[in-house]
Design brief:
Number of domains: 2
Strand content: 15-25%
CATH superfamily of the largest domain: Periplasmic binding protein-like II
Low-confidence stretches: 1-6
Order of helices and strands: EHEEEHEHEEEEHEHEHEHEHHHHHE
Distance between the termini: 23 Å
Length: 310
């Protein structure tokens, strides 16, 4: 329900066509969905109209470099490259708390998870969802932890939803999977060799910050705070009305049934999504500091989080 304000300001909200993003921004939906139903905002948008721009995270990362969208999902890996234009909102993050992106291979390969060694990685062909995805940054840090040579030219960017089929087909030895593939890879006959979220938790004792929500600085401090508060209200509403929000999100489930969609949403829309909190903020700083120290990303200085803690 829009505000009674007579001036409506349009804000483009970029996010992935995935169940978790669809779930948390469902209360802001103002469009006709794939289900043919026309959806209207469920909360007071205070004179703002949110236009949803649905694109994969690789595309959103690239658009953020041009500052095209007022609000956008992006990989935490991408943030140092756009920090001059954008600040992170305190809400809207995707954190892998002991789970996260996975390196997978066909289950009938010569190696098994029990016999697999990280030293096998550099010689194998790898499909990744994007060179600025946090999954790729985390895998490179994993390699450096094990003092391994990077993959270099044996890496190829493949759309995230095509990685599992490409590994099954044999086009790649390994796939670096994100999103719902973390729940469905075994259905395709694949096995997990490395869970980067688990590795990060075991070694850094922090959740792995995967995706964030960024807001353009030229909106000005007051509007940035107002919008960040509306975004947090959207997430609160979705969590409080879980069944209807999951039902809406299933339109972008790519084969997930209701139970798996609810499980996936629970993995990435939770207390971390309402607000990073001190530990979540520390996790972002840790990841970006390590990336900068190993010259994988540029340093970005102090990291802004717009909005108060939940």
């Amino acid at each position: 329900m829009p505000s009674s304000s007579s001036v409506v300001r349009t804000i483009r909200l970029g996010h992935s066509p995935d169940p978790d993003d669809a779930f948390m921004w469902y209360p802001l939906a103002d469009f006709t969905g794939p289900d043919g139903q026309t959806h209207r905002p469920r909360i007071d948008t205070r004179g703002y109209r949110f236009v949803h721009v649905l694109e994969d995270i690789q595309s959103l990362n690239q658009r953020a470099e041009q500052g095209e969208l007022e609000i956008t999902a992006l990989s935490i890996h991408q943030y140092p490259f756009v920090a001059e234009r954008y600040a992170l909102t305190a809400c809207g993050s995707s954190m892998g708390d002991g789970y996260g992106p996975m390196v997978v291979a066909k289950a009938d390969r010569d190696f098994s998870p029990a016999k697999f060694s990280p030293a096998d990685l550099p010689r194998l062909r790898l499909a990744i969802p994007g060179r600025r995805t946090t999954a790729w940054l985390a895998l490179q840090l994993f390699m450096r932890d094990h003092q391994l040579t990077p993959f270099a030219p044996r890496v190829e960017v493949v759309p995230f939803d095509q990685i599992i089929p490409a590994v099954v087909k044999g086009d790649f030895d390994l796939g670096l999977i994100i999103h719902e593939g973390q729940l469905t890879f075994s259905h395709a006959g694949l096995q997990c060799l490395v869970d980067l979220g688990r590795w990060w938790k075991d070694t850094r004792h922090l959740p792995l910050p995967l995706g964030g929500n960024a807001i353009r600085r030229d909106l000005g401090p007051q509007a940035m705070r107002e919008i960040a508060d509306i975004l947090q209200q959207s997430i609160r509403y979705a969590l409080a009305h879980r069944e209807e929000a999951v039902r809406f999100a299933l339109q972008w489930g790519r084969g997930l049934d209701g139970k798996l969609a609810d499980q996936f949403v629970g993995m990435y829309v939770n207390q971390w999504t309402l607000d990073y909190g001190p530990q979540g903020r520390a996790a972002v700083r840790q990841l970006l500091a390590e990336g900068a120290a190993t010259q994988l990303i540029p340093p970005c200085g102090a990291i802004d989080f717009v909005g108060s803690e939940a």
